[in-house]
Amino acid sequence: MSDPETTPGTAAHQKIDTSVPHSARIWNYWLGGKDNYPVDEEAGDAYTGVFPGIVTIARSSRAFLRRNITYLVSEAGIRQFLDIGTGLPTADNTHEVAQRIAPESRIVYVDNDPMILAHARALLYSTPEGATAYVDSDVLDPERVLAAAAATLDFSRPTALILSNILGHIADHDEARSIVKRLMDALPSGSYLSINDGSRGFDPGFEQAQDGYNKSGAVPYNLRTVEEITSFFDGLELLEPGVVSVTRWRPDADASDAPIIAEHGGLARKP
């Protein structure tokens, strides 16, 4: 196993604030991870007290990502991944799924949280044949992300862009669409875009809990309609079944009757 590369940036100089809940650490808590603090557990428990279904959403989101990556490696032949908004390492991280199938896969993770940076070197190990790298940067600066990722990825070859539960942190929908476009414009034909985000219009309990969370002092996360999520794929070829509840995107054989939840996503190819 080879060590991951880490590109230092703003997070390297930040102190981890354990007095304010952080979305990545709360998500880690809901996924059953241990990389969180009491303030995150309290915020997570307060959220589940209003909407217990958030744990299902978190774990269904991770399962959706696993199925996406499995398709991309096994059927689409993708060997390069740019995963922005990585979050804290848990189970079935992008490189683990990809390199189990194709050890030569190369993955760049991007996040701007100091706790995630601290864990990157310790936990994001690569196979000897492939590579993992960590870029300390912000999705709001796509050109910097791409420049740093180019040290590990060859952008003349098809690459999968992974945006899992990150675009909700960009309040302005037009700005979010612009960022997605700028990132995809830098990737060649045959590349893919995978997006999943919390959706509005399906579960009032989820929306109430999220609105409360956004007022808690944590970084807000904005739910979007399915139509808004679908618009991120404009100009690309959406794979069947399109943008759907993550539980209904090519489900495993034992989960074909999974309920629709307020988390939607899709996978599309750049023509």
Automatic annotation (TrEMBL):
It holds the Pfam family Methyltransf_19. GO terms for biological process: methylation. Keywords: Methyltransferase, Transferase. InterPro entries: SAM-dependent_MTases_sf (IPR029063), SAM_dep_MeTrfase_SAV2177_type (IPR006764). One of its GO terms (molecular function) is methyltransferase activity. The keyword 4Fe-4S does not apply. Coiled coil: none annotated. This is SAM-dependent methyltransferase.
